[in-house]
Design goal:
heterodimer; A: 217 residues; mainly alpha; two-stranded antiparallel ribbon; 2% strand; B: 199 residues; globular
């Protein structure tokens, strides 16, 4: 045991947890959680990245705290305790955003506050942090946040590119031969883009992923 | 502090149902929308619960925000207070349904507590604060938004029942096709856009 090569935080299980969160059990594409903000803030790539960052911070933080307190939280009121912990981290992030990136905070509007009700955060606290030691819980939270952030970045990129022909506000597809499709920036475009993304995930994962069964609460 | 927008509560009510549908244009409440839209009766039950909870919590949260949080300067605690109010309220509705309609209680099962984390409920409260609604406007917005949400989920449940008979390409089965249908539904609702508008 003593002369084993250095292992990533949380041991070999940590690595597996990381992979599960990002790919095998991706919160948006496979578990279909936290769709609301995935759709609302992804009309620009920059917004998507900030939101992804917020989620990594909140999920990792709340997972850590829930895991540390897991032996002290009474079972009956655990939901409200978890929500309280999550809300605390969201308020921290909201105040940080207001103080340092006011413009971004205005653009995201109420959607920062809505991280509280993002099922991913709650789901990880409930399903993972309550049963696992703190270090592993951080890895799991961060991995799920990361999986979420990656999907958000992809949707944000596709929508901004197709909708306005720009990436980060810089023109990529020139107006001469590309007619921007306004629909992608509007609400229906978000739904359709995510629909195709989930279908692509299903296709890549192959037939062993049972389509239609992944919609667990 | 900005002044309240000068719009009649009726306009807000209609706009919240059709043009600014909380689900189709603000993407709130997607999780339970996807999970509970398999059968029409379940959808109606959940829709009714959401209408009740959202109207009441919008009113409660407005009062708390205006009479407690604003005078004491605790506005940054909004999130945590709002979610606590909502959680307490959902608990109440759950006990109510369990007592008076056991059938509905079994149909909704574990989804009732999930209303707590239904983003639409918290979203309505946050939006009304951001937009500086008056009390009447806030209630109209909460009620209208919830009716719009219920309308969308019932429509979706109807479509989903039909979908059972259609041959969907394999990778699209399940959530993917549901998202695309929702997209098309959002497009049709955009047809109402000329009617009335709020922000």
């Amino acid at each position: 045991m003593a002369n084993n090569p250095p292992v990533p935080p949380g041991g070999p299980k940590g690595k597996q947890t990381l992979r599960e969160g990002v790919w095998g059990n991706n919160p948006i594409a496979i578990q279909v959680l936290g769709i609301c903000s995935a759709l609302a803030v992804t009309n620009k790539l920059a917004n998507s990245l900030v939101m992804g960052g917020a989620l990594i911070f909140v999920t990792a933080g709340s997972n850590l705290l829930v895991s540390l307190l897991r032996r002290h939280i009474p079972r009956r009121i655990r939901m409200i305790v978890e929500v309280g912990i999550i809300a605390t981290f969201v308020i921290l992030f909201d105040l940080f955003l207001k103080a340092f990136y006011f413009e971004m905070s205005k653009q995201l509007g109420p959607y920062v506050g809505l991280i509280i009700t993002n099922c991913i955060v709650m789901g990880r606290a409930e399903a993972f942090a309550l049963q696992n030691p703190p270090l592993l819980a951080i890895v799991d939270g961060a991995a799920n946040g990361l999986g979420y952030a990656i999907v958000l970045a992809i949707i944000g990129l596709v929508r901004e590119l197709l909708g306005t022909g720009k990436v980060f506000g810089l023109t990529v597809l020139s107006g001469q031969w590309y007619q921007p499709n306004q629909l992608m920036v509007l609400a229906p475009g978000a739904f359709i883009a995510l629909g195709f993304l989930i279908a692509a995930f299903n296709l890549l994962k192959g037939p062993q992923a049972e389509p239609g069964k992944e919609a667990k609460p | 502090m900005n002044d309240a927008p000068n719009i009649s509560a009726w306009v807000i009510l209609i706009a919240a149902i059709f043009t600014n549908n909380i689900l189709l244009s603000n993407f709130l409440g997607m999780c339970s929308f996807l999970v509970c839209s398999k059968r029409v009766p379940t959808a109606i039950g959940l829709g009714a619960a959401v209408i009740f909870v959202m109207t009441c919590t919008a009113a409660l949260n407005w009062l708390i925000n205006d009479y407690v949080l604003r005078p004491t300067g605790l506005m940054h605690l909004q999130f945590i207070i709002f979610i606590a109010v909502i959680a307490a309220f959902v608990q109440f509705v759950e006990m109510f349904i369990e007592r008076f309609s056991p059938t509905l209680y079994h149909a909704l099962g574990i989804f009732l507590p999930l209303i707590t984390v239904n983003c639409a409920i918290l979203g309505a409260s946050l939006f009304m604060i951001v937009r500086n609604y008056t009390f009447g406007q806030a209630v109209a917005f909460g009620f209208g938004g919830a009716v719009g949400w219920a309308l969308a989920i019932v429509l979706m449940a109807g479509l989903n029942q039909k979908l059972g008979y259609s041959d969907v390409p394999r990778p699209f089965r399940g959530v993917a096709i549901a998202m695309i249908i929702t997209g098309v539904m959002a497009m049709t609702f955009m047809g109402f856009a000329g009617m009335v508008a709020i922000q």
